[in-house]
Amino acid sequence: PRGWLEAIRPFLAVYISPGESPLPLGEVDCIEICRRYPPILRLDTTTNQVLVGSRHVDDLGLGHFAILQHLSEHAGKVCDRKVLYRVYQKASYPDYYEKDLKASDIASVLDTALYRLRASIEPIPANPVLLETVRGRGVRLRSPARD
């Protein structure tokens, strides 16, 4: 498939070190390599398409794309969870209106949305390298997104 060399280049750089015999990479090694060399995230806002490395992400809903677009516009900065919740709700439900919500309602909806977003875009969803949760503050897109 297209893009295979781009996907394995970080692993090869670590695996094939000059003067050393290659050792098998374990799970911890793979996670560290993904963290050190995160895939490039590209958003096409005209067609609502997402590309992670060379992989097309086809299963994003409007709300998830809206969260990703908002985080991309503020790449590297921590975005407040309440703001992300509003972005998600407005994109998912056009008739959405602001009402008094409990923090637990916001947390459960947003946590589920972020879980599904990570499952779609992260190389290893259990160890995210693109979407970072900053405890008590919000969420940040770690990798600079490129259009």
Distance between the termini: 22 Å
The outline comes out as elongated
Please mark out the parts with pLDDT under 50 across 5 or more consecutive residues, or reply none.
Answer: none
Give the biggest sheet: 4 strands, mixed
Spatial strand order of the main sheet: 3-2-1-6
Structural class: alpha+beta
Strand/helix succession: HHEEEHHHEEE
Give the count of helical stretches. 5
What labels describe this entry?
147 residues; alpha+beta; two-stranded antiparallel ribbon
3D architecture notes:
The chain has five helices and six strands. By secondary structure, the protein is of the alpha+beta class.
List the helices and strands and how they pair.
Elements: H1 4-15, H2 27-36, E1 41-44, E2 49-52, E3 55-57, H3 62-73, H4 81-92, H5 103-121, E4 131-134, E5 138-141, E6 145-146
Parallel strand pairs: 1-6
Antiparallel strand pairs: 1-2, 2-3, 4-5
Helix pairs in contact: 3-4, 3-5, 4-5
Short overview:
With 147 residues, this protein is an alpha+beta fold. It contains 5 helices and 6 strands.
